[in-house]
Write a structure and sequence with these properties.
This protein is an all-alpha fold. It is 69% helix and 0% strand. Helix 9 runs antiparallel to helix 10 and helix 35 (631-643) packs antiparallel against helix 36 (647-657). The chain is elongated and about 120 Å long. The two termini are 44 Å apart.
Length: 773
């Protein structure tokens, strides 16, 4: 195998000579033998250096794919942003950024990227992929009805009828739950216009007719539905139900009988038919209907309802009903009822000449109440009657499946200890049975036994790993972490390289220090090395708001102003053995492995008209769902809107979040930036001055806001006020941002004709870094 270090050294020599094509050839040889993310990142930088944007983007995509596969989602995210610096409408990069943000739980950011992806796909006429993206947004915001309605319209327009119908069904169900019958029926009708035989819509409308008392209309509709679906059990059942409600019982019986002809063990049909016979006083017919599915009926009822049903049928079949009543009473732990039922069964069996069975019932009752003279006499009599034979009822051992079914009944009635005693012995005999472990996990969770519940989660994690189902395996680790994130048995999973990156919270948990944010600082450093300065600044400013007096963070922020467009090599990249210097002034500087040349001059993305319509519908849905007092969400939406270039929408959100004392300062800062972005410098001055007056601590955030105020004064033409503020900041910290440069610049502006007080100074044309959303 070739020596990787030698190949890298050879490639760097070509770079030093300015022979980029040969360098690319060498790096691609390296990628073929030693494919990894950093190698493809370097190749992408080289292609970009020679102006080949297509191959550059392809290489960055390969690098990002490696990072994602290896669990380094932050680095993958940075690579996708590099791609967007080159091609702001790269659909794959936008989609990947949406997925990464969704994985981290950042719903607003995920939706933002998905909408940008939709815009790109719409322009490329990739309709099917576009619809998949809309589905992703709907999954993240399921209650956004205006947006869902718009998606349904697009599905219909593009010929995806079943998908459009599915969305209208969702909306109809939503309005039904909210009690808006008119709207619900309207959307069910939309479904039927698309699919006249849509069973879910037919049933949905039928329930609404019943709810509003329109029984005749409901009857007619269901009879028509039976003609359209002659053998459909669900339709026949609904038709029978409507006839029962309308007191047309003979017709209801006919429909129920049809169901039983098709499906003899249909529990609901037999239960309904049995109930009708009970109401008519014909218990024998009712029993004939109940008996084939009696155990399922009993299991489906509450304890009291099940007891009442069986008691009402005792005279028809006292033994069968008695056995089931005895089982229910045992499960409930009501010993008095257990004894009474045992005596009743004993008496019944004795009358029917089943003496051995009767004796067993009496003996069991006597064990519960050993001082009961009546039972002692009964047992003695029967033992004598059966010639003194000691009768012992054979105890058949339960299978695991039987134990799980019985445990379900115990759990249903809150008899957790009974279920536990029944199931735990099987851990020795069936340790790898997933159904058993799932049932035990649920049981321990119900019992609030966190330690045992986590133990079962860990066992299930291992069992699903053995089956190759890594998704379910990881699901149980997450579930265990939710039960008790501090359980020491979970430490190895928390520290794994694939753990989910933390988001910086506005206020650190009690007792936390800067070390707890080391991952976030590392993320910012990585962004700096990739040339994504604003992304790094955002992270560091959030950390600074939590630890305002920390000099390390302040220095990092201050250094961002000094970072040029060509940045240091990635610290994670394999070191180069020797530094290559340009041999002639005319030769371009060498590109170290992992470095990025930033692209300038690209414009901010503007969403196309179709996707902008979608976004407007999405906003309508958010406005309906979002409470005014949910200041955190309003603030986050403001950030997202600002990044999308929707400044007016951002201003509206920040004006709302401004009402929250905890969000007052950051909201004021963002409002000031938005006002300046629109050229409304006087408004920016007002909001920043108001915030500064209410700040009690003169920490770094205080001076940062004064810096923003000085900038607003400068842009508004208030040179004297701006100069005074910048001078104050210089006196506090001469290295803060670029304050010394600002002071020198203002000195030159004083002599310029357009620097008259109160007159906004014309902005110089500048090249902005691309905004990827």
């Amino acid at each position: 195998m070739p020596d990787k270090s030698a190949l890298i050294k050879e490639a760097q020599k070509y770079i030093a000579k300015g022979q980029i094509d040969k360098a690319i050839f060498e790096w691609e040889k390296i990628a073929k033998e030693f494919p990894d993310a950093n190698t493809y990142n370097t190749i992408g930088d080289l292609y970009l250096k020679k102006g080949d944007k297509k191959n550059s983007v392809d290489s960055f995509h390969r690098a990002a794919k490696f990072f994602r596969q290896d669990g380094f989602s932050l680095k993958a995210l940075a690579l996708y942003k590099k791609i967007l610096n080159i091609n702001p409408s790269d659909a794959n990069a936008l989609l990947s950024l949406g997925e990464l943000n969704e994985e981290k739980g950042l719903v607003t950011d995920a939706i933002k990227y998905y909408l940008a992806t939709a815009d790109s796909l719409a322009k490329e006429k990739q309709k099917e992929k576009l619809l998949d993206v809309y589905n992703k947004i709907l999954t993240l915001s399921p209650g956004n009805i205006p947006f869902r309605n718009k998606v349904a319209e697009i599905y219909y327009k593009e010929g995806f009828i079943s998908e459009a119908a599915k969305q209208y069904l969702h909306i109809a169900s939503y309005y039904s739950e909210k009690g808006d019958i008119v709207k619900s029926i309207e959307y069910y009708q939309k479904v039927l216009e698309l699919q006249p035989l849509n069973k879910e819509a037919l049933l949905g409308i039928n329930y609404l007719h019943e709810k509003t008392g329109k029984l005749e209309r409901a009857l007619v509709q269901m009879k028509e539905a039976v003609n359209s679906f002659p053998g459909d059990i669900e339709i026949l059942l609904r038709c029978a139900e409507v006839h029962i409600i309308a007191k047309r019982l003979d017709e209801a019986k006919e429909y129920l009988s049809k169901i039983i002809e098709i499906e003899a063990a249909n529990i609901k049909a037999r239960k309904l038919l049995g109930d009708l016979y009970i109401n008519e006083g014909d218990k024998n017919k009712a029993w004939a209907e109940y008996l084939p599915v009696l155990d399922e009926i009993v299991l489906g009822e509450s304890y009291d309802n099940a007891v009442n049903l069986l008691e009402s049928l005792k005279e028809v079949d006292p033994i069968e009903t008695g056995k089931r009543l005895l089982s229910l009473h045992r499960q409930s732990g009501d010993q008095t009822r257990v004894i009474n039922e045992l005596i009743f069964l004993g008496d019944t069996l004795s009358v029917m000449e089943m003496q051995k069975d009767a004796l067993e019932c009496y003996k069991e009752a006597l064990e519960i109440t050993p001082d009961n003279d009546f039972l002692r006499v009964k047992v003695a009599e029967l033992e004598k009657e059966v010639s003194g034979e000691a009768f012992v009822s054979p105890q058949t051992e339960k299978t695991l499946d039987e134990a799980i079914v019985e445990a379900d009944i115990f759990i249903r009635y809150g008899l957790y200890e009974n279920a536990k005693s029944l199931l735990e012995p099987f851990k020795q005999t069936n340790p790898d049975n997933i159904d058993l472990r799932l049932k035990l996990k649920s049981l321990y969770t119900e019992m609030n036994d966190k330690e045992e519940a986590i133990s079962e989660c860990l066992v299930l994690n291992d069992l699903y790993k053995k089956t190759g189902d890594t998704v379910k395996s990881e699901q149980f680790i997450k579930e265990a972490q939710e039960i008790n994130p501090n359980d020491p048995r979970l430490a190895e999973f928390i520290s794994a390289p694939y753990k989910e990156e933390r988001e910086i919270s506005a206020v650190p948990p009690k007792g936390h220090s800067l070390e707890d944010y080391s991952e976030d600082i590392a993320e910012a450093d990585f962004y700096v090395k990739q040339g994504l300065i604003e992304e790094a600044r955002n992270i560091l400013e959030k950390i600074q708001s939590i630890f305002p007096e920390n000099t390390e963070i302040s220095q990092k922020l201050a250094s961002l102003g000094q970072v040029g467009q060509v940045v240091e090599a990635d610290a994670n990249v394999e070191p180069i053995e020797e530094k290559i210097k340009p041999i002639e002034e005319k030769i371009e500087p060498a590109i170290p492995e992992g470095e990025i040349v930033e692209v300038e001059g690209t414009e901010e993305i503007s969403l196309g008209s179709e996707v902008m319509d979608m976004f407007n519908e999405f906003k309508k849905g958010l406005e309906k769902e979002l409470e005014d007092e949910d200041y955190e969400t309003h603030y986050n939406l403001g950030i997202a809107y600002k990044e999308m270039g929707l400044i007016d929408d951002a201003i509206k959100e920040f004006q709302t979040s401004l009402k929250d004392p905890k969000k007052f300062i950051p909201s004021s800062t963002m409002l000031g930036m938005c006002y300046m972005g629109k050229g409304l410098y006087s408004l920016a001055i007002d909001v920043l001055k108001n915030a500064i007056e209410k700040m009690q601590e003169r920490d770094e955030s205080y001076w940062a806001m004064r810096y923003d105020l000085a900038t607003a004064y400068e842009n508004n033409g208030n040179i004297k006020e701006a100069s005074n503020l910048f001078t104050e900041i210089y006196g506090w910290n001469s290295k803060f941002r670029s304050v010394s440069d600002k002071i020198n610049l203002l000195k030159t502006k004083v002599s310029e004709p357009d620097s008259e007080q109160g007159k906004p100074i014309g902005k110089k044309e500048r090249k902005d870094r691309v905004s990827y959303i």
